[in-house]
């Protein structure tokens, strides 16, 4: 992935989408390389699905330019639709049909030719680990299997670009890991993948993450870039007795830029972990707080998100009906 | 967390079956008074079923559930005075304002009139919603709706609250705010039983039960959970994750190699010994590497490790 200079597979330039007076997407720009997995991370109503619908040619942008696989989506939405696959967390499978019947159905919907269909079905079954299950009713499959079948249906027509909408939220961790292995395999084969999710742990699997909040792109980078560079400081895990008192005390401790309770401990943001940690322990000790233990911890994606979003205006505004 | 702990919720031998699906399978745990206890697990683990039974709104097939001294199985009606139950889709009236919703629930729960206004004001302030009191509930963001749901379910000052996935789909900032409210409830001595499918929320509980397919895989503090990870986790930052995995799979001491967005996570038996070996192997295979270091396992890593070590599901 050493940044090939080939044309980007997805190009979004100053995209805007308004619904009446509501601004769902407020001028977003980004590009995605071929074979890259890009995560769209943001709360419900942030504008993630609006962007994806525009990219799929289902919604017209109010302003801006969008090219997918070299095609101008506004000018030729039909051509774009043949190049993309879509899978949602709410697996749109037919539970009373078998695995093979579902595949055949979606193959026809996506316009796979009769000649190509058997081969594509074999490939899809193999890839999803469903070989030998072709005659099982979908309603009898465990959720991890269903999810892989939904993916298999979405790639029957060999799309260049795959859109995944919260593909593994709530799924057990083992199934999730298998699923993401498949996605990485597809990406290695040149498929470009766009994942929209509000799950921090799904985002970890993406090559790059676009943080979206209230229609704006607030950060774009690899998971580790976001975690390590966006906080502008280092994070301490502080354990001690009398948590409530320690919290009150830390409100008056200047080097602590942010304090959050986590169970029986606190996460404290300081400029630099070593000196900051020493000062903090000394400060709490001097005020009679006992059993103070301080350790540097790695920030999570959530820490990064909260920091980037929270730094902006207060959260407590209405979602204004979100995007439809 | 003052000793000796009193038990607020005790569940033992609980079973519930829906036709041929066993939702809860001989499950037990207890929640101490004034603690935040998490039911943590993926969809289908049994979280909602347990909470429904504990709240007295669903019957079980076998087992005993005692909540705040009330035998819920024998007298499900009586438990409602002591506790509050907030289901996944809490019934807010979207065409009523924030304040009107609270007043409605105060009526429903029989809160005396003289207490009502004062309590509503205090709860609104505690959840940071005072300035939105006249806004229609339907116009609140997802995170705000959850906070309002919690506020409504606290209006009769319950001694225990049962919350079913209150943070699902809520943005991370609102999620922190929501937990902040839970911590202030804890400080007032309220017992909190909360379910979540976000495994990382385990870290925020005082104690938790990690659930999978209707069974408790693990029940203790998050600190003790971290100590349960067999071996250690190395994070390899690399622009070529697949090549890195290729080079590491099957090596001595390497249990698993997981592809993540910008590298791989390598589960090894021993960090100090394997870290230089992993570096050497990657160098030898010509895999570009930006760094290798030991990282703390996530709850998801622990979940997978626990599954591997014991009752692995099919």
Helix vs. strand class of chain A: alpha/beta
Low-confidence stretches of chain A: 1-5, 313-324
Low-pLDDT sequence parts of chain B: none
What characterizes the major β-sheet of chain B? Answer: 6 strands, mixed
Spatial separation of the terminal alpha carbons of chain B: 38 Å
In the sheet with the most strands of chain A, the strands line up as: 6-7-8-3-9-10
- Total number of distinct structural domains of chain B: 2
- The CATH homologous superfamily of the largest domain in chain B is termed P-loop containing nucleotide triphosphate hydrolases
CATH architecture of the largest domain in chain A: 3-Layer(aba) Sandwich
SS-based class of chain B: alpha/beta
Helix-strand sequence of chain B: EEEHEEEHHHEHEEEHEHEEHEH
Q: Kindly identify the CATH topology of the largest domain in chain B.
A: Rossmann fold
Main interface by residue count: A-B, 60 and 63 residues
Distance between the termini of chain A: 36 Å
Taken together, the total number of domains of chain A comes to 2
Biggest β-sheet: strands ordered side by side in the sheet of chain B: 6-7-8-3-9-10
Shape of chain B: elongated
- What's the CATH first level of the largest domain in chain A? Alpha Beta
Tally of individual helices of chain A: 11
Per CATH, the class of the largest domain in chain B reads: Alpha Beta
Percent strand of chain B: 25-35%
